[in-house]
Amino acid sequence: MNSKKLGKIYLVGSGPGDPELLTIKARRLIDEAEVIVYDQLPGKQILASMPEDAEKIDAGKYAGSHTLRQEQINQVLVDKAKEGKNVVRLKGGDPYVFGRGGEEAQVLVANGIEVEIVPGITSAIAAPAYAGIPVTHRDHASMVTFITGHEDPTKEDSALDWDALAKFSGTIVILMGVSMLPRNVNELMKHGKDPATPVALIERGTRPDQRTTVGTLENIVKLAEERGVKAPAITIIGGVVTLHDELGELR
Ligand code: SAH
Questions:
Q1: Rounded distance, CA 233 to CA 218, Å?
Q2: Fewer CB within 10 Å: N-end or C-end of the chain?
């Protein structure tokens, strides 16, 4: 029997990419880690700051060019903890805002492994902020909702209630929304949202090459095509987007 003491897993949010937006705790845990399991979402600058002597496991590209599936990522985390290692599972933004951090925590807890969560600054708020767009504002939105833009379109019962979203008077922030942008804006308009509603796409938010594209529900798909908008990007919909012109990129 393996009597070795179990290691601990830190589920650490890296924030949206600007290294100065890492929390002090995240920075310390990264610097002290024996193993870091990461993917590309934290961005080049933060990934480049991982300590040399830590074992680094790319969960996005593991075992040659194959992508590590979620079950394999979970298994690696369990195995490393069983080896007695202190492991940082580094996740972009906040670990529990999409990105499956909750599922990883469930597997670890079920395996009797000690987990500590280190919240991070989510890109859902920080990317718009750097683009001069507050997610709430007294004149524009008293509510905000975060949705996944990448639901499987063949899924019969969408978890997204497009009817409710079209009626929603607050700000809608879509994560993972680039590839399904046409479907998402069409659903909103089909369910009655005003085609003139302002929309912004913020690519690589808080990174040196952040780029913002502003339009409306009606023209944003065309603009995104023209400008070659790519993931990772935040889609933000609602009156708050008009503040981009007034506030500009604030960083
Ligand atoms: N946990 C992350 C989100 C993971 S889902 C967070 O809290 O930020 C992955 C999605 O996050 C991407 O498809 C994109 O929509 C968004 N995202 C993450 N980092 C981003 C960044 N720096 N700029 C824009 N979008 C980002």
A1: 19
A2: N
For 138-179, how does the pLDDT look when each residue is reduced to its tens digit (9 = 90+)? 999 999 999 999 876 667 667 899 999 999 999 999 999 999
Annotation: CATH topology of 8-118: Cobalt-precorrin-4 Transmethylase; domain 1 (3.40.1010)
- Does ligand 1 lie within 6 Å of residue 94's CB atom? yes
User: What's the pLDDT tens digit per position in 48-74?
Assistant: 999 999 999 998 764 454 566 788 899
Strand 171-175: give its sheet, edge to edge. Answer: 144-148, 171-175, 233-237, 198-203, 211-216
Residue 197 tokens read as 């509603």
The two three-digit tokens of residue 108, written as one number:
């670890």
Name the residue with the closest Cα to ligand 1, atom 25. 233
DSSP SS3 for 129: helix
Q: Is 65 exposed, middle or buried (0-12, 13-18, 19+ CB in 10 A)?
A: exposed
For residue 123, give the ligand 1 atom closest to its CA.
8
pLDDT at 31: 97
Helix (H, G, I), strand (E, B) or coil at 21: helix
Catalytic residue list: 39, 61, 176
Domain locations in the chain as residue ranges? 8-118, 123-247
Classified as helix, coil or strand, 211 is: strand
Q: How far is the CA of 181 from the centre of ligand 1 (A)?
A: 15
* Torsion sign across C-alpha atoms 143, 230, 102, 187: positive
Is domain 123-247 given the CATH code 3.30.950.10 in the classification? yes
